[in-house]
Each structure stands twice: as structure tokens, then as C-alpha cells.
Amino acid sequence: MRNKRVLVIDEESAFTRFLQDDLEQREIAVACVYSPGDETGATAFAPNVIVADKKMLAKSNAGLLHSFDCAERKLPLVLMSGPDGKSRRGTAASLRDADSQIVATIPKPFEPNMLAELIDQYGEESQQENLDADYISALVASDRLLDNLVVEFQSKHALQDGAVVGYEALSRLKTRRAISPATIFSAATEMSLEIEATLNVIDQTMKLAAALRKSRKSVPVSFNCSAILLTQSDFVERLFGRLDQDKNLRGSVIMEITEENRVANIKVVAEICHMLGRHGLKVSIDDYGTGHSNLDRIAEIPFAELKLDKEIFWAFCNDRVPITVLGSIIDFCHMRGAKTVVEGIETAFHLEKAQLLGADQGQGFYWGRAVPPQYLVKHWTDV
């Protein structure tokens, strides 16, 4: 199913979130339209199959299909309807004015296998390799980036007994969940947008940490922050302000520093981290083993945790990186009194290899995907 790109037109729900994740696992790129404001991004996504809820399409989105049709070929359309017991191929009279090729109607809910087979049968391979940057640009241009961002939380576990020892806040685009924050917040995205998005994640992180503490399930909650943000005085001042609002959360919140492809002044970053530490904020080094990360570069940062990136860990699992390389990193952390976290644990084999390294904690799909905060605490509200 190489380069299949599917646009889903439906209401936002747990089902569509699950459907996105499942299809992406099958290497099918997915974007969603939940409201008319999402249509600009949908056009930039350039799908080769459309999957649409019958009622939603008839109500407000039928016109969107015309923008994808070309003279040579109309995009295949799979309609989703209420439960009717079977899949019906052919046309639907009530939606003929949509002027698109309806190849099947399937009842909801359905198994993703059913949809994957239809996509494989009717979807042509895209000739464009990667349109994610264009998709982000379209969201920014239509002022829909911040409105589309949500925060979910993935658990972190002790490697010895599997106990939950923390959670990490992860930014997701509701309409294109597979895009990584590194792609969303790159040199092409205005710094002001990244600042506002990160502050929102921090607010959600502190809120969950407080709720966990109140429910007596207190474990630290972490958020990601690019190193370049720590050199922005406006962001740093607003971060300090938030930390001073709730001194009861000292030690309950961890900042994971990401570096990606933008190089920040490490001396400035280290100085800010020391100041934040005096305000009770612990520091973690995220995605170690990628980009510009090395032990000399991070030695000045007072980190309490270091996370081994999934790619370098998987390279070790596949015998492409010797155990001595990762072992020396873990020893270095332990000598500094810092914990080590292995990312990308997805199978029992991965867990066994992480335990062999002598790392402290792990994170990955082996224990589950990131979930909205209401899955973790009762009576959660978004306000």
C-alpha cells in the first residue's frame, strides 16, 4: 500500500482517532476533515481515496470532493453509513450530486481491515512523496494550527516490574495524528506559534500532575520543549510564571529537552535549566542518539533523566550498535545520579533487550498508545 493517502470526512470521535492510528500502522497516510475549517489542509494533503460519513458529507462537505476531481479520473469514494449489516457496492442516489465515484458503502463501526482492503483495491499510489510540510503550511495559512492541536499522554514504566512511573504529554494534530512535533514546529513555523502551543502543553501537563496528586496516584508528568525555545526570553518568563503559580507541584513536572535540527546555544540552555531547577522543574534529555546530541554537549545541563531514542535502541536490537555503546551512556547517567529511559519498546523482545542494557525505565506501544487525559483521571474538563 505504498504512498496511499486517505482523507476521512467524519465527526471527531474515539473511533476516528483509532482509525487514523490503525491505518498509519499499515503505512496508509490519513488526514481528517471534522469541520469546514479543515478543508484547506485537506486540499494540501492531496488524497487518492476519500472515506466519508454519509450524513456529514451530504450536510456540508459534498462540495469538497469537486476540488479533488480531475478530467481523467474522479477519486474513489467510500461512504460510511449507520449499521445495516453488510457492505454494498455501487452508487448512492442521495449523493449522486457529489460527482465522485462511490465504490462502496460500509456500516459503522467497522474493522479497519475492511477499509484497508478497499483502499488497496481502489487507491492509486501517490506520485508525491511527502506533503506534510505543505499540510502544516496550509493549517498555518488558514489559522487552524493551534485549534487542531490536542494533548495526549503516554505512560512510562519501570523495566523491572512494569509499574507506571510517569506520563509524557504528546502534541497531536487532531486531523493528521501521524505528523511529529518536529515537523509541526520547524524553522518554517513561526516561533510565536510554537511558544503558544508549548505553553498549552505545559498547562495540560501541570493540570494532569495536580489531578494525579489529588487522586493519590502521583507520578511525574513530562512535557517536550525544544532547546531553541529556552533561548527565547518571552517563553522563559511565561514558563517561570506558571511554575510560581503552583509550588505544590515541585518535582512532579519534568521538562524533556528536544533539539531536532535547530541548534541552540547550549550554554544558554544549561543556564536556564539551572534556574528552572531552582523552581522545582526537573530536566530530561529527550531522543538522545539523534541530531546533535552527544555527551560533551549535554554535560553542562543538570538533567535528572536521559531518554534513549527509538532508532538507536532498535539499531542495538538489530545488532547494528554494540551493547558497549549504549551501556556507556547508561553508566554515564547513573554516575550523575540520572535515570535512563528506553524509548520504542513495542514487543516482549524489545523489553528483554532494554532490561539487558540495565536501563531504569521504558516507554512504547508495548504498554499502550498515548490517550486523552480523561482516560487517566476522573472528572477531567478541558477548561
Question: What is this structure's SSE topology?
Answer:
Elements: E1 4-9, H1 14-25, E2 28-33, H2 39-45, E3 49-53, H3 54-66, E4 76-81, E5 101-107, H4 112-122, H5 132-141, H6 145-148, E6 149-158, E7 164-173, H7 181-184, H8 191-214, E8 221-226, H9 233-245, E9 253-258, H10 266-278, E10 282-288, H11 295-298, E11 305-308, H12 310-317, H13 323-335, E12 339-343, H14 348-357, E13 361-363
Parallel strand pairs: 1-2, 1-3, 3-4, 4-5, 7-8, 8-9, 9-10, 10-11, 11-12, 12-13
Antiparallel strand pairs: 6-7, 6-13
Helix pairs in contact: 2-5, 8-9
* Backbone structural class: alpha/beta
Q: Secondary-structure element sequence?
A: EHEHEHEEHHHEEHHEHEHEHEHHEHE
Biggest sheet statistics: 8 strands, mixed, barrel
In helices, the fraction of residues equals: 25-40%
Count of beta strands: 13
Strand order of the largest sheet: 6-7-8-9-10-11-12-13
Mean residue pLDDT:
86
What amount of the residues lies in strands? 15-25%
Instruction: Choose one word for the global shape.
Output: globular
Question: What distance separates the N and C termini?
Answer: 41 Å
Number of helices: 14
The Cα radius of gyration reads 23 Å
- Poorly predicted ranges (pLDDT <50, ≥5 residues)? 87-94
